[in-house]
Design goal:
Immunoglobulin-like; elongated
C-alpha cells in the first residue's frame, strides 16, 4: 500500500508541476485579445485630443483601378476627447487628389464629427454633418493605402495611410 501511495503522490506532484510549467509558458507573452482592432474598414489615428476612426475611401470599382478625375467619398469619424476645448477640421490633403470639404468642420468638446456621404452622417448622429470628396489625380486600387494629412485648428496635423474600401455593393 505504501508503494501505491508513494507512486500516487509522485504522479500527482508530476502532473501539478507540468501544469505549472505549461501555464508559465504563456506568461509574459502578448495576449491574442489584448491588441484587437475594431471591426471596421478603415484606419485609426490620434492627434492630441482628436481621435480619427474608420478612415477609408468608399468606392465601387468596376475595373482594376479608379482612374484620375473620378470623385470618391472619404469617410471617417473625428471624436473630440477633450472635455472643454472645441476644435475644427481645417483641411485634408493628399497626393492622390484634391479633397473638397463640406460643412463647417466644427468638433465640439466631447462630441464627434461624422464625415460621410450625404444622408449617412445625419443618421449616425454627427454633431455637424460634413462631407469630404476626393477628386483623384492618380489611379488608385484596393489593397493599397494612400497618405492623407488631416489638419485641425488646435490639435494640429497627422498623416494617415488610408485604404480604399471595396464598397457596399457585391463585386461581379
Amino acid at each position: 500500500m505504501n508503494r501505491f501511495s508513494n507512486r500516487l503522490v509522485a504522479a500527482s506532484a508530476g502532473l501539478a508541476a507540468c501544469g505549472f510549467i505549461l501555464t508559465g509558458c504563456g506568461s509574459g507573452q502578448i495576449s491574442q485579445v489584448a491588441g484587437q482592432e475594431a471591426a471596421v474598414n478603415g484606419m485609426a489615428a490620434n492627434v492630441k485630443d482628436i481621435a480619427l476612426r474608420n478612415i477609408h475611401l468608399l468606392a465601387n470599382k468596376t475595373g482594376d483601378f479608379l482612374e484620375p478625375g473620378k470623385v470618391v467619398p472619404l469617410v471617417f469619424v473625428a471624436a473630440n476627447n477633450s472635455a472643454d476645448v472645441d476644435d475644427k477640421l481645417v483641411s485634408i490633403t493628399s497626393d492622390v487628389g484634391t479633397v473638397a470639404l463640406s460643412g463647417d468642420g466644427a468638433i465640439p468638446a466631447g462630441r464627434a464629427l461624422v464625415v460621410a456621404p450625404k444622408g449617412q452622417a445625419e443618421s449616425m448622429g454627427s454633431a455637424a454633418p460634413a462631407g469630404a470628396e476626393v477628386t483623384l489625380s492618380k489611379p488608385i486600387t484596393n489593397g493599397l493605402s494612400y497618405p492623407f494629412t488631416f489638419t485641425f485648428a488646435k490639435a494640429g496635423a497627422t498623416t494617415v495611410a488610408v485604404p480604399l474600401s471595396a464598397g457596399e455593393v457585391a463585386q461581379p
